[in-house]
Amino acid sequence: MRRLPPLSALRAFEAAARHGSFKEAASELAVTPTAISHQIRTLEEHTGVALFDRQVRKVVLTEAGKALYPVLRDGFNTFELALQRLARPQVSQRVMISTTSAFMAYWLAPRVARFRALHPGIDLELHASDRAVALDGAGADLAIRYGRGEYPGMVAEPLFSDRFAPLASPDLGAASIADLHRLPLVDFRWEHQHPSNPTWERWFAAAGLAAGQIRPQLRFSDEAHAIGAVLAGQGVALLSLDLLAAELADGRLVQPFGPAIPGHTYHLVRSAGHAPAPHVEAALAWLRSQAAVAARLPG
């Protein structure tokens, strides 16, 4: 059981120590200087030590007072902050979105300022991983997953499908399929192997080339790193035209030749166990609108 002096005595001491004056402490606490003096005397009797050296025109903390003051000052500051937080309406809400590293870097992250402008009271937490995470609110609220739409136990809706074609930096001067013989071929490893993945082998078949005729010379473990290498002029890679629409539009990348082959579909995925909360529904609606805007862009 705590054996503490009256709270009024502690408040009086803290105010007097902060101001260095019983009079100013009395003004702050709306009592008389005599009342402040009595409260501090009560505290001194409780502790058994003098806390102030009472001089003619001022009061000065004793060593014991100097030791006690910062403890009470910090304590009252903590009380004030805690009460302010309780009194403030909790307007900020969080939505955690998980998606692949490449989609995060080249599609989602460049657009999030638009979401903040529309929904300043909703905080976005963005998780980039090529591996699926739990959609339970603790792991993530929403995911944008790339594949064929096979997500058991989840609510999945198509966001958009993409197309893949050879892309390169304009500095490489690629102009025709024949340039594949002189330029490094860049590739990356798909997290899940499937015959319908948009791979170089599929592209070679669509272009009428033998799959073993030209072999990739630079391989990456993920798509985002392959994109970075192509932007840096390291070679030609088979990449998504839709994911890199901005880079194609501003000339950082070019599609020197075709054909383009179909990829998979990006899906909005969430738990089927409950209806989304309003702030999560706001994020869903915004993602749908951004995909619709991107689909209307020329390309």
UniProtKB/TrEMBL annotation:
- Which Pfam families does the UniProt entry name for this protein? HTH_1, LysR_substrate
Residues of the HTH lysR-type domain: 5-62
Question: By its UniProt entry, which PROSITE patterns does this protein fall under?
Answer: HTH_LYSR
Superkingdom of source: Bacteria
| The keyword Transcription regulation is assigned to this record | yes
- Membrane spanning stretches: none
Record keywords, A-Z: DNA-binding, Transcription, Transcription regulation
Q: Which family does it belong to?
A: Belongs to the LysR transcriptional regulatory family.
Family annotation (InterPro entries)? LysR-type_TF_proteobact-type, LysR_HTH_N, LysR_subst-bd, WH-like_DNA-bd_sf, WH_DNA-bd_sf
SUPFAM superfamilies with a match to the protein in the record: Periplasmic binding protein-like II, Winged helix' DNA-binding domain
Instruction: Fetch the PANTHER family from UniProt.
Output: GLYCINE CLEAVAGE SYSTEM TRANSCRIPTIONAL ACTIVATOR, HTH-TYPE TRANSCRIPTIONAL REGULATOR
Name this protein carries in UniProt: LysR family transcriptional regulator
